[in-house]
Amino acid sequence: MLCQEGLTMSSVEIYIVVEGQTEQTFVRDVLAPQIAHDGIYLHSALIGKPGHKGGNNFERAKTDIGKFLRQRKNTYVSTMFDYFRIDSDWPGRSEILGKAQTGVFLTPIQKAKILEDATTREIVTAFSGDNAASRFIPYIEMHEFESLLFSDADILAEKIDIDVSYIRKILIEYNNPEEINDDPEKAPSKQLETLKSGYRKVANGKMISEAIGIQKIRKQCVHFDNWLRKLEGLQNV
Fold first, then answer.
1. What is the CA radius of gyration of the chain?
2. What is the domain range of residue 119?
3. In terms of CB atoms within 10 Å, which of 54, 66, 87, 217 comes out highest?
């Protein structure tokens, strides 16, 4: 691949530690083919050992992140975890909860920045010898993967066979898809499961996100777009 100056552009490999099969399928089958056109190759890996249960605790994530940082020194590592499901021990989580208890309002992007900055500090400290400061780019989904599917109300409604007015009513309540929140009853996936009995996270998630397209999702979901911009920027490092 040639850049504008006519120089050969080297490829970039990124391992993304993901929380579940929904994210793994999305990265592998939807996101990776799109971003590969820019010479960026994504590989998804499920957190923990096969069949692990429980929330996404940081020690488990740190182990997997460190494994990929140590395997090859010329690759990058990222994450794809739902804010909705990370455990209370996750770096930055207590800071967010503390601010909420004192009445401080944080936007989803502000919450994500606190978490991602704190996560980076912990990983850099733990794996400083592996150049983690330059090679680790965390991403915490606000508030979970299914929020991305609300980027196009018409396509979402069509694919799960419901009236689009139900989706639009949810979107009216929030400024954008990434603000559909972390309330146990109002999380994006919970709302979809309520609207459509038999909603299947992995199969439906792939089908809907493919139909919407990465570019439309990026336009509607600023935090998701910022993450991809960071990954794309690695071509210039």
1. 18
2. 12-236
3. 217
Q: Report pLDDT digits (tens) over 163-215.
A: 999 999 999 999 899 999 888 888 999 999 999 999 999 999 999 999 999 99
Contact 70, 135 (CB under 8 A): no
How far does CA 145 lie from the centroid of its chain?
7
Q: Which residue has the tokens 């993901």?
A: 18
Question: Does the pLDDT of residue 8 top 90, yes or no?
Answer: no
Q: Determine contact, residues 42/14, Cβ cutoff 8 Å.
A: yes
| Structure-token pair, residue 99 | 């601010």
User: By C-alpha distance, which of 42, 76, 43, 81 is closest to 60?
Assistant: 81
Confirm whether 217 is domain-assigned.
yes
Instruction: Name 192's Cβ contacts closer than 8 Å, sequence gap at least 6.
Output: 146, 149, 160, 199, 204
Number of domains in the chain: 1
- From residue 35, alpha-carbon distances to 117, 150, 233 in Å are 24, 21, 12
Give the phi and the psi of residue 44 in degrees, each rounded to 5: -100, 145
Give the max Cα distance, the chain. Answer: 55
Residue 6, domain member (yes or no): no
Query: From residue 84, how far is each of 30, 115, 177, 180, 210 by CA, in Å?
Result: 22, 12, 14, 11, 23
105 found inside a domain = yes
The answer to whether the beta carbons of residues 218 and 228 sit under 8 Å apart is yes
Return d(Cα 169, Cα 146) in angstroms, integer: 16
Q: Is 180 helix (H, G, I), strand (E, B) or coil?
A: coil
